Task: inverse folding
């Protein structure tokens, strides 16, 4: 681990070959290249905005007919992280399903895959704006999860400390090899971390959007996802 990369808030930033380590409210966390957040001390993995069943909902409402494979792909990537980390607790930070009907439309294979992932561990469904009510798939359904020194909820609040949330699907654009590349990203500062959307068919909100600029401190860091988790100063917020 590289302890020499110092930030202006907390113990500093660490880079592994794949993940990016940082400290929030005293908790040491890893921003994973997949978009999952790992808190090894608590054995807790968090993911945000799975939006399972999105293609089904869009088709049901008369929208574009997208290939209906995103639920299978999202669950496969989730399974990879669970196998890699073996978490005792999995927290899904809301909008896990694109709506209630999408949750009820999961195929038998998809339900079996999800049940296998949930088996033997505590599974927390945080309510989101797309899925405000519980679904009949097991696990525990909560509005938010206090887990000192952190609190897990769907939408960030203006005055919060140690907050872990999703909802905004943040993404950042960088120039690489002469072209602009946009990737989902984590955003974190001394107060909070906002996770990228984990779902395959989810869009994203640029880091310089007013909603995110208002929430994040001037020294905020964006961590790009992909083959490796890459930290950069948050676009649109640095030094302000």
Result:
């Amino acid at each position: 681990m590289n302890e020499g990369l110092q930030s202006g808030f907390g113990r500093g930033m660490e880079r592994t070959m794949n993940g990016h380590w940082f400290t929030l409210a005293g908790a040491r966390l890893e921003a994973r290249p997949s978009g999952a957040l790992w808190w090894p001390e608590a054995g807790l993995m968090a993911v945000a905005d799975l939006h399972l069943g999105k293609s089904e909902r869009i088709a049901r409402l008369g929208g574009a007919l997208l290939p209906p494979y995103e639920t299978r792909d999202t669950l496969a990537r989730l399974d990879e992280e669970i196998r890699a980390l073996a978490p005792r607790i999995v927290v899904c930070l809301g909008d896990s399903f694109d709506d209630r009907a999408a949750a009820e439309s999961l195929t038998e294979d998809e339900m079996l895959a999800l049940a296998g992932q949930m088996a033997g561990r505590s599974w927390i469904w945080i309510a989101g704006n797309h899925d405000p009510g519980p679904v009949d798939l097991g696990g525990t359904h909560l509005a938010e999860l206090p887990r000192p020194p952190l609190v897990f909820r769907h939408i960030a609040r203006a005055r919060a400390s140690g907050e872990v949330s999703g909802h905004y699907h943040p993404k950042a654009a960088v120039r690489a090899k002469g072209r602009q590349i946009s990737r989902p990203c984590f955003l974190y500062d001394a107060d909070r971390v906002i996770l990228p959307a984990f779902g395959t068919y989810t869009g994203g909100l640029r880091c310089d959007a007013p909603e995110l600029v208002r929430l994040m401190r001037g020294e905020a860091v964006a961590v790009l996802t992909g083959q490796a988790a890459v930290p950069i100063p948050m676009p649109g917020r640095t030094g302000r």
Observations:
- The first helix runs from residue 54 to 60.
